[in-house]
């Protein structure tokens, strides 16, 4: 596998202005505001690489450590490599600005400054004839007791060269919750009980005992046959379903006939029930 590797050590933290752009295709207008969208104008030092192969970037300065990678399938998909490269630039520039501000505030308050960090690692969930489903493991540190981590996801429409949110494949977030929500709640409470050593009782007073809706999680569209979407993955970051020490939760559910009923009509050919 070809990997385009870029490592920059102890270079100055250059700041570049970013122009935000909304290039996530969401016909249901239900895309998550937590998902960053790459800018139209790339900035920073990590310029877009030529199409083809995986990419791995690591940059270390006196202010921050920045790491970003994506797999070969993404690098070989027209339009997607550029989308990811522009997002790389945006995230790197944002980290540099936050770190500079953090160092200035620490100096003004008389505190030592600990360098910031940001890591993003994209992986393939499913590579289908018309779609490429990706997930990302995210981690960051900007001071405090511990680093934070979470997840992200997109589904790339190969024909239209556009990124989509997984929720946009369904009639609505509410429709998906009506079908998948009860299964997710049962699976989550079963795993909570294992980790906590006691049954979970949702009294309504503790958010860490409450059910979690699919659109509050990172939804993945997966496949076991390489042809159609027949699996729904759920990733729940810390602080959503439990305290940080409890870790993240991950589940996989089959696509059922009932779930097919809430898939938007134009996307039904991409799905298959088990």
Describe the structure.
The chain is an alpha+beta fold and 274 residues long. The chain folds into two domains: 3-164, Heat Shock Protein 90 (2-Layer Sandwich), CATH 3.30.565.40; 170-270, Actin, Chain A, domain 4 (Alpha-Beta Complex), CATH 3.90.640. Helices cover 23% and strands 27% of the residues. A seven-stranded mixed β-sheet has the order 1-2-3-4-5-6-7. It has a three-stranded antiparallel β-sheet with strand order 8-9-10, covered by helices on one side. It is flat, with a radius of gyration of 20 Å. Mean pLDDT is 85; it is low at 1-23 and 25-49. This is DUF4163 domain-containing protein. InterPro entries: PdaC. Residues 25-34, 42-52 have a biased composition (Low complexity).
In short:
By secondary structure, the chain is of the alpha+beta class. The protein is 23% helix and 27% strand.
* Strand order across the largest sheet: 1-2-3-4-5-6-7
Low-confidence stretches: 1-23, 25-49
The ordered string of helix (H) and strand (E) elements is EEEHHEEEEHEEEH
What is the rounded Rg?
Answer: 20 Å
The count of DSSP E runs of length 2 or more, i.e. the number of strands, is 10
Distance between termini?
33 Å
| pLDDT averaged over residues | 85
CATH topology of the largest domain: Heat Shock Protein 90
CATH class of the largest domain: Alpha Beta
CATH architecture of the largest domain: 2-Layer Sandwich
- Tally of separate helices: 4
Which structural class do the helices and strands define? Answer: alpha+beta
Signal peptide: 1-21
Keywords: Signal
Domain Deacetylase PdaC: 58-149
Pfam family, one: PdaC
């Amino acid at each position: 596998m070809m990997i385009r590797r870029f490592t920059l050590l102890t270079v100055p933290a250059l700041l570049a202005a970013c122009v935000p752009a909304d290039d996530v295709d969401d016909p249901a207008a239900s895309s998550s505001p937590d998902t960053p969208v790459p800018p139209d104008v790339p900035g920073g030092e990590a310029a877009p690489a030529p199409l083809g192969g995986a990419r791995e970037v690591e940059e270390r300065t006196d202010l921050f450590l920045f790491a970003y990678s994506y797999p070969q399938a993404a690098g070989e998909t027209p339009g997607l490599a550029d989308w990811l490269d522009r997002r790389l630039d945006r995230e790197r520039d944002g980290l540099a600005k936050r770190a500079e501000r953090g160092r200035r505030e620490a100096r003004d308050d008389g505190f030592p400054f600990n360098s910031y960090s940001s890591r993003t690692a994209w992986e393939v969930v499913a590579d289908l004839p018309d779609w490429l489903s990706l997930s990302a493991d995210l981690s960051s540190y900007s001071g405090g007791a511990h680093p934070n981590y979470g997840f992200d996801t997109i589904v790339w429409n190969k024909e239209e060269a556009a990124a989509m949110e997984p929720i946009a494949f369904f009639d609505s977030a509410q429709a998906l919750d009506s079908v998948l929500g009860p299964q997710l709640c049962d699976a989550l409470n079963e795993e909570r009980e294992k980790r906590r050593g006691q049954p979970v009782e949702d009294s309504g007073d503790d958010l860490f005992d409450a059910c979690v809706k699919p659109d509050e999680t990172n939804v993945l569209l997966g496949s076991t046959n390489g042809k159609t979407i027949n699996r729904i993955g759920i990733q729940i970051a810390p602080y959503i379903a439990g305290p940080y020490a409890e870790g993240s939760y991950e589940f996989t559910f089959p696509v059922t006939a009932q779930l097919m009923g809430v898939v938007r009509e134009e996307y039904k050919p991409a799905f298959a029930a088990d």
